[in-house]
Specification:
Elements (H helix, E strand, L loop, with lengths): L1 H56 L1 H31 L5 H13 L8 E3 L19 E3 L6 E5 L4 E4 L5 H8 L4 E2 L11 H6 L7 H4 L6 E7 L5 E4 L6 H6 L9 E8 L1 E2 L3 E9 L2 H12 L12 E6 L5 E9 L20 H11 L3 E6 H5 L10 H4 L6 H7 L7 H6 L3 H10 L1 E8 L3 H11 L6 E8 L19 E10 L2 H4 L8 H14 L3 E2 L9 H7 L3 H9 L10 H5 L4
Parallel strand pairs: 1-2
Antiparallel strand pairs: 3-4, 4-8, 5-9, 6-7, 6-8, 10-12, 10-13, 11-12, 11-15, 14-16, 14-17, 15-16
Helix pairs in contact: 15-17
Length: 562
């Protein structure tokens, strides 16, 4: 019995020891697992959550500390790349060879039902909008970056689609020539401006950017290359390409008209304290009332700082010898105040002012501050100390601003940040200004830029509703960029972007106006087709093999929020 009891006790002790050991091992495993999990959480917080927190809540510091020097390096890299392409890889005489390569890509693509688009990354576009269609469509590599020829005798420059406005002004202005319409940003490409649209302070004389096109070389959806002009067999396609956003054909090259220019712009600033006053001043300067805008001043622009306060600017080309001593304002110098702040100071003095500005400085007067968007990104950017120390780094690249956004900031921008251009007949200008103030809760400044709207057969844009004798009508682009006042006041819930945009678009249609499509499109397809004429556009899509898989429609590309 004692022996049995001893054995039983030994067995029980062994089981107890085994249980303790098992418990210890289990506890160790659990502790290790918890430690691993904790380390993963810490690692995730350090590697993902913390950077997202910094990018979301301290974006201004990120843009200043990292964005500005990275943008400078990026600009330098692009200049080196352009030089390399020009010297080594991509001489203009190789254009036809590059076209043949692109043509083969289109003809031999494996999925003929996949819509076509260029392979240029979406983040490289100047638009702040996010569009993801290139991830799903058949992206065609198009290394077309060259100025192919400059014919000063016939006033024509031939360019490939990815030539930028900066390239053109650097090449043309020293020779005494310029484009009749030079949109503001250096990084805007000719292809984007032709397939979409472009406007500047000379557009009251020359119209939108597409009005300066003389010839288009195009690749159709079936791989056919055609050359379209305003009076050849492809004239219907020539007129329809603008505002088509690459949904009719791929652009291979374009011939653009040139005009002579001078080294300086004489700019007259006229402050106004009544809406009726600055509206009437701009309409008079446009040449609208005399029915002939060919003899009007070269440049006309307005900046509105409230419903009743604005400065109207009128400019003319002048020679350097005609510039009075001490009257030059070199806007591009890094330490200069942002242009819209400079204009606001003139408004506060309420006195007409005349300045003489170098031509390239005038063309890129809003570049340093990206109009006034930089005030949101870098609130101290216009501070005199910041300008002296870091102004030479400004502005950060729009591409960097886009890729540095987190999902949270992107959603916040979509909900609260307005970046829209509305094309309105000048006869409805005052009415739309009041609408914009109410619907967008006092976003100021507003950019005011006139343009001569001509009929565009086959394009999405409808013809002028109240044309002059020449069939044209004077319009004005009202640019609304910034945050509503309630957002500035931390009352974000009071602003409903979709509701405001729908109200504005509905009223805009009733005014015979249009929304520029580089921005977020909040319309349904039905609403979109009420504003833009699709009848002739769809006939051309069928005629030139754009439908049936080769290209989607404009709404499919440009609508961001459905």
């Amino acid at each position: 019995y004692d022996s049995h009891l001893s054995k039983t006790s030994s067995v029980m002790g062994a089981h107890a020891g085994l249980g303790v050991t098992t418990l210890a091992v289990a506890s160790a495993i659990t502790g290790t697992a918890m430690l691993v999990k904790k380390r993963r959480e810490i690692s995730k917080a350090m590697l993902e959550d913390f950077p997202m927190y910094i990018l979301t809540n301290h974006r201004s510091a990120v843009v200043t500390i990292f964005g500005l020097p990275l943008s400078l390096l990026w600009d330098g890299a692009l200049r080196l790349r352009s030089h390399y392409i020009k010297v080594v890889k991509s001489a203009p005489h190789l254009h036809d060879q590059r076209v043949m390569t692109i043509q083969e890509q289109v003809k031999n693509r494996p999925d003929k039902n996949a819509p076509l688009c260029t392979a240029r990354p979406g983040w490289m576009s100047v638009s702040l909008s996010y569009r993801t269609y290139k991830k799903k469509w058949d992206a065609i590599a198009m290394p077309l970056y060259d100025i192919l020829s400059i014919d000063t005798d016939n006033l024509i420059v031939r360019v490939e689609p990815f030539v930028s406005i900066g390239q053109l002004t650097h090449a043309l202005n020293p020779q005494g020539f310029t484009l009749p319409v030079v949109p503001e940003m250096d990084d805007l490409t000719v292809g984007g401006l032709i397939n979409g649209t472009g406007i500047e302070s000379s557009s009251h004389k020359y119209g939108l950017f597409h009005e300066i096109i003389a010839e288009l070389e195009l690749l159709l959806g079936d791989g056919t290359v055609v050359v379209a002009t305003a009076d050849n067999e492809y004239k219907d396609l020539f007129h329809a390409i603008p505002w088509s956003y690459g949904t009719l054909a791929l652009l291979l090259s374009a011939k653009l008209r040139l005009i002579p220019c001078k080294e300086f712009v004489k700019l007259t600033y006229t402050p106004h304290t009544k809406m009726e006053s600055y509206v009437e001043h701009m309409r008079t300067l446009s040449g609208e009332y005399n029915g002939d805008n060919s003899e009007t001043t070269m440049f006309v622009e307005g900046l509105a700082y409230s419903l009743n306060e604005a400065v109207v600017m009128a400019g003319e080309f002048v020679d350097k010898v005609d510039v009075p001593r001490g009257c030059t304002n070199r806007l591009s110098l890094w330490w200069k105040p942002w242009f819209y702040k400079h204009v606001q100071k003139i408004l506060s003095k309420n006195q007409e002012t005349v300045e003489y500005i170098p031509l390239r400085d005038y063309y890129h007067r809003h570049t340093q501050s990206l109009f006034w968007e930089m005030e949101l990104m870098i609130p101290i950017g216009n501070n005199v100390i910041f300008r002296w120390l870091l102004g030479w780094l400004m502005p950060p690249k729009v591409s960097f601003l886009k890729i540095s956004q987190t999902e949270m900031t992107r959603q916040l921008v979509e909900k609260t940040h307005v970046a829209q251009d509305f094309l309105v007949p000048t006869r409805k200008m005052a009415e739309f200004l009041e609408l914009a103030e109410n619907e967008f809760d006092r976003i100021y400044p507003l950019w005011l830029c006139l343009h001569d709207h001509a009929p565009m057969p086959g394009s999405l844009l409808k013809d002028p509703a109240v044309p002059r004798e020449n069939g044209h009508e004077m319009y004005i682009d009202i640019g609304v960029y910034g945050l509503p006042q309630c957002v500035h006041d931390k009352r974000e819930d009071e602003f409903d972007m979709k509701k405001s945009m729908k109200n504005v678009i509905e009223e805009l249609r009733g005014m015979d106006g249009f929304q520029m499509l580089y921005a977020d499109v909040f319309n349904t397809r039905e609403e979109f087709e009420k504003m833009f004429d699709h009848k002739e556009y769809r006939k051309l899509r069928s005629k030139y093999n754009a439908d049936g898989g080769a290209f989607k429609e404009v709404y499919d590309k440009m609508s961001v929020i459905l």
